[in-house]
Amino acid sequence: MKMMATIHWVAWDKVIASKKEGGLGVGSVRAANLSLLSKWTWRVKTERESLWSKVISGIHNLYKKSFSNLAKKTYGGVWSNAMKARVDIKEIGIDVDSFFICRIGDGKSTMFWKDNWTGNRPLQIQFPGIFDISNQKNSMVKDRIGTQGYIGNLKRKPRTDQEKDETQQIKNLCSSYTLNQENDRWIFKTAKDDDFQVNHIRHLIDSKISCPSVGKIVWCNLVPLEVTCFAWRAYHRRIPSAAGLVNRGIPIPSTQCQICNEESEDVDHLLLKCRTAQEIWKKIFLWCGLSDQNLSNIQNFLDYEASWGD
Ligand SMILES: [Zn+2]
After folding, report:
1. Is residue 189 situated within a structural domain?
2. Predicted model pTM
3. Which of 48, 82, 264, 294 could form a disulfide with 40 if both were Cys (CB 3.0 to 4.6 A apart)?
4. 105 C-alpha to center of ligand 1: Å?
5. pLDDT of residue 1
6. d(CA 86, CA 11)
7. Helices in 185-260 by DSSP H: which ranges?
8. Statement to judge: residues 204 and 246 lie in one domain
9. Per DSSP, which regions of 39-125 are E strands?
10. In a domain, 190, yes or no
């Protein structure tokens, strides 16, 4: 069978970039995979009564581990893939844990120092001085908040100004919480229904690993997708103009424009500058009741297009 060589006109990172960043918004398989895997940590925390969660937590001793402590590459078995994904996402520069926040009920399943339940960051990060001299670094919230507020358990009395100041802040903070009979409940901060948003994480990953672009392509539902995609490719200079083909090593006799024979046929010439193209644009502008524009390149054209309706 004869193999047909295919020209890859657009780099993959430009294709997977979000529309906001000038891509096609296709999204990478890697991002989809990582975000789906990262949901397993969320599930093991939020579905703790289910059998699978109990089995996984039992095997890997996850009951007294904060979300952030779950991200390790050392786990074995099926759980290792989910945990490696979390490490990979962290290395990309996304802190998935920062989206998880616990609404305190009875305080039995939330780690006082290590889980994220107040102030957007775990208390061990907010109050490192007191955490250092704390006796029970794996305390649960129920161990540290009583009817009288904060229950300290320190190796020694706070000495430095920082330690004294932090103690006061923790006391103030704990006094605003009253434990009740309900279970603690994890919520995903940006979601309306509090549940984990795979797509949200996927887009974040894509935005980090894809190459941002500066195109101003208007993704309007009234314009057929093929047309917008063609404009997007033209913006990236990735349509088979004569000059484009030669750039990719395709032997053609001449790059001169076959219509006017005046200039090299690159994207700007083919679509805007060629006399024939200009005649067509004149008629289109007249038809649309727009003043004639001298658009010399695709960037100008798309900027002009983006300004319609302003
Ligand atoms: Zn021409």
Report:
1. no
2. 0.57
3. 82
4. 72
5. 43
6. 27
7. 198-209, 225-235, 242-247
8. no
9. 100-103
10. no
